[in-house]
Each structure stands twice: as structure tokens, then as C-alpha cells.
Design goal:
Helix content: 25-40%
CATH superfamily of the largest domain: Response regulator
Number of domains: 2
Shape: globular
Structural class: alpha/beta
CATH class of the largest domain: Alpha Beta
Number of strands: 15
Distance between the termini: 23 Å
Order of helices and strands: EHEHEHEHEHEEEEEHEEEEEH
Strand content: 25-35%
Largest sheet: 5 strands, parallel
């Protein structure tokens, strides 16, 4: 079951999106549960205790800016898993929206094929992030969702996993062996000691990258161009 929220103060847009989403699910054999909202406050109340896999979010709500809701979702509830698809009549919000790590931006008036393509893009991401990484520690086999992993860091013959929730796990291995086991589309080695989840890269600077939790990780000078190309390639593959 994939949980989807639709939030727009225009009831006609809500109804139109709801129909497109549900029809897409039926036609492509997906089980969708859709919850609709006509104001941002009601959505935010629900987000305190519940996560949606996908959120269609109007930017210009009567009571809130959708980007403010997106910011609170990321920064105050530490939810980086829900995929936000912003909906707006104006593109000037694109830059501020980008800071909340959206998956897509749909312009009004809605076009069915664009909405369906956006849904398809998100589902590709969800299929990837539901995969797991398996490692052994003290003879015990452990599994962790790849979507929970911010990055791997190697220390000689050990590797440490850093997660979204701040937990850390260590096991005996090498980064070379880890690379063989993770999805090469989602993870990138931008430094000999680090393997980073592309989904959680917030900013690329001259000598480092900044992750969604503000963690700063160094970049090898010869990897900067490669990193930017990989991220662009990753985004193109989702479209």
C-alpha cells in the first residue's frame, strides 16, 4: 500500500488530482490510499503522527505556504522519506521549494500526462529505497533499509553506517565490498573513505558536500565534476 496526500485549497484541483492518482493506480496495478486536504494546517496536524509516501502539495494555500509545510516536514519532524510534489501556478517558488528537497514541481493548470509522469518518477524512487543492505556484526546478520542510510564511512578494515535517525552501525568490511552490494544509482563515492546516498545531498560546495542533516563531507578534487554529472544523470533517469 502506498499512502498519498493531496493538499490544495481549490477543491476542483483536489478532485482532479485524486482521480488521476487513483486511475493511475488501477491502470498500473498499484494499491493507493489517498487522503485529501483543503488546508495546510490540517495536513500538518496529520504529519505529526503519520508519514505519507507521496505528498501533492499546493504552494499557495490560503492559510500557509506549501514550502513552509515542506520545510517543517524536513527540519522539525526530520522526515526526509516522504516525497513532495509541489503544485503551483507560478514558477518563482521553484528556488525556495528546492530547499525542501522536493521530487517534482507540477504547474497549473494540471496536465494528466505530466501528473502521471511525476507519479511514475516517485514510484521508481520508492522501489529503490525499499531495498535493504545486509551486513554481519559479531556473527549476527543485520538488514537496514538503504533509504535509512545517509552514508558509509570506512576506517581501515571497518565500515560505519550513518543513518537518518542518527544511529550508527559498524562492521568489518571495506568500502569496495560495500559498493558491490548497494545500488550504484543511489550511492556515490565522492571520496576514498565515503559512500554517500545521492538522495540526501543538499548542497555541493567547492571542497565538500552538505547532507540534509547538515553533515559536511569532503570531496576529492578530482571527483567534483564526476559527482555533479552523476547527480544530473540520476535526475534524468527519473524523468
Amino acid at each position: 500500500m502506498i499512502n498519498i496526500a493531496i493538499c490544495d485549497d481549490d477543491s476542483n484541483i483536489v478532485e482532479e488530482l485524486n482521480k488521476i492518482v487513483l486511475d493511475y493506480g488501477v491502470n498500473n496495478n498499484y494499491k493507493f490510499y489517498v487522503k485529501t486536504y483543503n488546508c495546510g494546517i490540517d495536513l500538518e496536524k496529520h504529519l505529526i503522527n503519520s508519514d505519507f509516501d507521496i505528498i501533492f502539495l499546493d504552494i499557495e494555500l490560503n492559510d500557509r505556504l506549501g514550502t513552509d509545510i515542506g520545510y517543517n516536514l524536513r527540519e522539525n519532524t526530520n522526515n526526509y522519506k516522504s516525497k513532495i510534489i509541489y503544485v503551483s501556478s507560478h514558477t518563482q517558488y521553484a528556488i525556495s521549494a528546492y530547499k525542501t528537497m522536493p521530487t517534482d514541481f507540477i504547474c497549473k493548470p494540471l496536465k494528466k500526462d505530466e501528473v502521471e509522469k511525476s507519479i511514475s518518477n516517485v514510484l521508481k524512487i520508492l522501489e529503490i529505497i525499499n531495498k535493504t543492505f545486509t551486513y554481519t556484526n559479531n556473527g549476527v546478520v543485520n538488514k537496514i533499509l538503504l533509504s535509512d542510510i545517509l552514508y558509509f564511512e570506512s576506517f581501515k578494515n571497518t565500515v560505519k553506517i550513518y543513518t537518518l535517525k542518527g544511529k550508527e552501525y559498524i562492521f568489518y568490511s571495506t568500502l569496495k565490498e560495500v559498493i558491490k552490494k548497494v545500488d550504484s544509482k543511489n550511492f556515490i563515492q565522492q571520496h576514498r573513505c565515503y559512500l554517500v546516498n545521492i538522495e540526501y545531498i543538499s548542497t555541493i560546495e567547492k571542497n565538500s558536500i552538505i547532507l540534509c542533516n547538515n553533515k559536511i563531507i569532503p570531496i576529492s578534487r578530482d571527483k567534483i565534476k564526476f559527482l555533479k554529472e552523476r547527480i544530473l544523470s540520476y535526475e534524468r533517469e527519473l524523468r
